[in-house]
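Below is how a single chain appears once it has passed through the pipeline. First comes the sequence as given, then the structure the pipeline wrote out for it. We keep one example in the README because the format questions we get most often are answered faster by looking than by reading.
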Amino acid sequence: MATAAALKSPKELIFEWEGKDKNGKVIRGEMRAGGEAVVNASLRRQGVMVTRVRKRRTSGGRSIKHRDIAIFTRQLATMMKAGVPLLQSFDIVARGATNPRLTKLLTDVRSDVETGTSLSSAFRKHPMHFDALYCNLVEAGEAGGILEQLLDRLAIYQEKTLAIKSKIKSALMYPIAVIVVAFVVLTVIMIFVIPAFEDVFKSFGGELPAPTQVVIAMSKFFVAWWWLIGIIIGGGGFFFFQSWKRSEKMQMTMDRLLLRIPVFGDLINKSVIARWTRTLSTMFAAGVPLVEALDSVGGASGNAVYAIATEQIQRDVSTGSALTTSMTATGVFPTMVLQMAAIGEESGSLDHMLGKAAEFYEEEVDEMVKGLSSLMEPFIIVILGTLIGGIVVSMYLPIFKLGAVV
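Resulting structure:
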């Protein structure tokens, strides 16, 4: 019996069908089955005259993003709180997913659960999409019989985390986009515009002003070596980001550097603290033991400096030290977070106090992003005006000089 079920469920696929009901009306739908014959037989029993059956394509599609998992978690939590059975909830979410890869992922998880595997164990088979924090919270919910509550808490956590990341990206995207556009504009000017001016200046005779000579020399270098400049910038950027991803030493160096950058460093630091406190608050509120919860907190912070600090905290806590004492010893947490943690430990409401600290720093990040947006605009305008305006003035100096002579 068990063997037959194990062989049947993993092979089930989603089929899209079209047919006519008893009144001749065209109807369409989807069905999970082991093959087209099963779909045809099931629909005939329902009085449907099948005209077309095809397997839903599950290949291709965009990659599964963190936002997709967050939306799935919110939908699953909402349906389970409304009393919809787990397997039926998976069917509804999978049917509504527009990404074929997400549909296949949810179908695989559902099949595992249907054969008797726990939901947390089914999620653990897909570590690329469901991390240790996610699986631990689901496991705690299953053990305590409060799965729908923890799924709701997990959905809130993911939504907060995505909001923080989105704010950081929006703060960094504007200056990066302007820098890229400025580089493209300067490249076009250097390669196409300035050589045309140079041909005109040759007919003037006489010596060109020093700024004009510098700009023309730079233009000649761009025209001669544009391909090498492109290779150096593109290749250098590729190898830099690859080494950042793969080298722990590089990650540590860059994460330390990011925290020290003027203005932006403070923004990144506050966002990391918000994620750290939000993660620990969520784990602790779910009943996960502190030492075990710290396993997921460091990685969720998104910064190697705090990940290493979390490992040190975990070692200290496992030997009997208080959480606040261990956090203080790392030297990376601000006084407010330490005080909130101390009050939480003394009052037995650590999850609540850490949640309040997370809310405070999330609001701080929001305010900093708004301030940076208004601060960066005039700053970038001055830089671009200086660069492009300097080139324009340099190219018109010989014309002004010629006009003075005439």
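The chain is about 75% helix and 5% strand.

See the next section for the split statistics.
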